[in-house]
Automatic annotation (TrEMBL), chain A:
Its main location: mitochondrion. It comes from the Eukaryota. Heterohexamer. This is Mitochondrial import inner membrane translocase subunit. The keyword Oxidoreductase does not apply. Mitochondrial intermembrane chaperone that participates in the import and insertion of some multi-pass transmembrane proteins into the mitochondrial inner membrane. Also required for the transfer of beta-barrel precursors from the TOM complex to the sorting and assembly machinery (SAM complex) of the outer membrane. Acts as a chaperone-like protein that protects the hydrophobic precursors from aggregation and guide them through the mitochondrial intermembrane space. The gene is TIMM8A. Pfam families: zf-Tim10_DDP. One of its GO terms (biological process) is protein transport. Belongs to the small Tim family. InterPro entries: Tim10-like, Tim10-like_dom_sf. It comes from Leptonychotes weddellii. One of its GO terms (cellular component) is mitochondrial inner membrane.
From TrEMBL, chain B:
Keywords: Chaperone, Disulfide bond, Membrane, Metal-binding, Mitochondrion, Mitochondrion inner membrane, Protein transport, Translocation, Transport, Zinc. One of its GO terms (molecular function) is metal ion binding. It is found in: Mitochondrion inner membrane. This is Mitochondrial import inner membrane translocase subunit. GO terms for cellular component: mitochondrial inner membrane; mitochondrial intermembrane space chaperone complex. It comes from Crocuta crocuta (Spotted hyena).
């Protein structure tokens, strides 16, 4: 993501380093925000029954666990794919680009 | 969203780009995009929760449900944001 943004920016000629830094920071912030949107939607399905007058502690704990386990799942999958790729590559090169 | 910037995007005459102006406009665009994202997901979720059988009008109990659902969705969003943020902090500390 970072390499693509800098390579496409290079097409504009000399890019203001301040602007480059701004883009990098905003891209990271936006990735964070996007994942928050996604996890809120996902965990809402798992943790919300009927919306009450306030978010009760049970639901809140469920949301926190949901976020933690979602990230765990993502990391687990990434690690396992890495492991299986090392021992016996199942993906052809066409999939890796 | 298309063409929102117009042709005067970040330029202060003479075709020279003003980084400060670009950053300002990008920030506004990001805020708008995030608000739209939230609005769209919130509408979807609260419609599912509150509108069982779509009737002739949005009745009183449905409106109450939607209002409550909106507030809880915001709570959920903030809880998720905090949880994700603290996870990132923890992982950064462990590196």
């Amino acid at each position: 993501m970072d390499s693509s943004s800098s390579s496409s920016a290079a097409g504009l000629g000399s890019v203001d380093p301040q602007l480059q830094h701004f883009i990098k920071v905003e891209t990271q912030k936006q990735r964070f925000q996007q994942l928050v949107h996604q996890m809120t939607e996902l965990c809402w399905e798992k943790c919300m029954d009927k919306p009450g007058p306030k978010l009760d502690s049970r639901a809140e704990a469920c949301f926190v666990n949901c976020v933690e386990r979602f990230i765990d799942t993502s990391q687990f999958i990434l690690n396992r794919l890495e492991q299986t790729q090392k021992s016996k590559p199942v993906f052809s090169e066409s999939l890796s680009d | 969203m298309e063409g929102g910037f117009g042709s005067d995007f970040g330029s202060s005459g003479g075709g020279k780009l003003d980084p400060g102006l670009i950053m300002e406009q990008v920030k506004v665009q990001i805020a708008v995009a995030n608000a739209q994202e939230l609005l769209q997901r919130m509408t979807d979720k609260c419609f599912r929760k509150c509108i069982g059988k779509p009737g002739g009008s949005l009745d009183n109990s449905e409106q109450k449900c939607i209002a409550m659902c909106m507030d809880r969705y915001m709570d959920a969003w903030n809880t998720v944001s905090r949880a994700y943020n603290s996870r990132l902090q923890r992982e950064r500390a462990n590196m």
